[in-house]
Amino acid sequence: MIRLISRRIEIGTGDGGISNLGFDKRGIVTSCRAVLLPRFGGPEVLEFRDNVAVPDLKPNQVLVRARAVSINPLDTRMRSGYGRSIFEPLLPLILGRDISGEVAAVGNSVKSLTVGQEVFGALHPTAVRGTYTDYAILAEDELAPKPGSLSHAEASAIPFAALTAWRALKSTARIREGHRVLVIGGGGAVGFSAIQLAVAAGCHVSTTCGGESISRILAAGAEQAVDYTIEDAEVALKGHFDAVLDTIGVPDTERMGISLLKKGGHYMTLQGEAASVTDRHGLAIGLPMAAAILLKKQIQYRYSHGIEYWWNYMRADAEGLHEIRRLSEAGKLQVPVDKTFPISQVREAHEAKDRRQIPGKVVLEID
């Protein structure tokens, strides 16, 4: 059951506005524009279509009129076939995890959000109906009020990256004031979010990054930023750390991160092998095989180094999202946006990310 819908019905303008929305007799939107992924491949496989069905809301769900959605590395990897063992039977997909927009309708058990309210949030990594659409559907605990000081484009760049960092640092490592935290790859959205979250928690933060990111990272409160392109990071980083978040996740960074941990510390990598192993061997064999690989590493490092080893993934966390909102509102957490595209140019945006023409965050704006 849906409690309400939008305060207004938007009509098309003939110039790229929402001209192909479908509504039922109650005025509830039933179809809209969306970017579909009908098959895996390069940016050219993305299709911008009209009249894509909008499912009915479940009691805990919220219909969000999207104003901006950001492109995450997960989007481009999924488009290319990452996670195909899970997603191929479910094609076509709608990509996209982050969103900023307005509440258009709510399910009958939703209590914290109201129609017309500006919100931001992020979907789980395995969601099939993503946010590259006029109207996205998220669970109530995947959304929070949008920081009033941010535009929709700025707000849409934050949730998925910041929640990924939050899960690692707060839920897994349980960082607290005085801890020493190392972020390997602090120049990306997750790494930069992790730095800001750790600084806000009163931690002493060091990071590795490219030279172009150093001034921004130091301004965010990191105590040490090592340019890995010109320095030996393992030599330059001093002392040992309570937590290491490795956003790069190659063998060299894993070895370095583990060697720099204190006993009882936590090593967390964003490059867990669950999806890649499952893609190679299929769900039936791949999932238990991935679990066995992780368990073997956890036991190995616990006994050889006295540390905890984790593969880290984003999960919905209502408390975390509200803290991220609070920090963003206070100017203590941001993810800079390098370029915006209209959603109709989604292929061009993905191509620019694939070619690494835009190193930072790219946002799709929806009129």
From TrEMBL:
**What does the record give under GO molecular function?**
oxidoreductase activity
Alphabetical list of InterPro entries matching this protein: ADH-like_N, ER, GroES-like_sf, Lipid_raft_assoc_Zn_ADH, NAD(P)-bd_dom_sf
- In which domain of life is the source organism classified? Eukaryota
Span of domain Enoyl reductase (ER):
41-364
UniProt xrefs under PANTHER family: PROTEIN AST1-RELATED (PTHR43482)
- Protein's name in the database: Enoyl reductase (ER) domain-containing protein
Please report the organism this UniProt entry assigns to the protein.
Answer: Solanum commersonii (Commerson's wild potato)
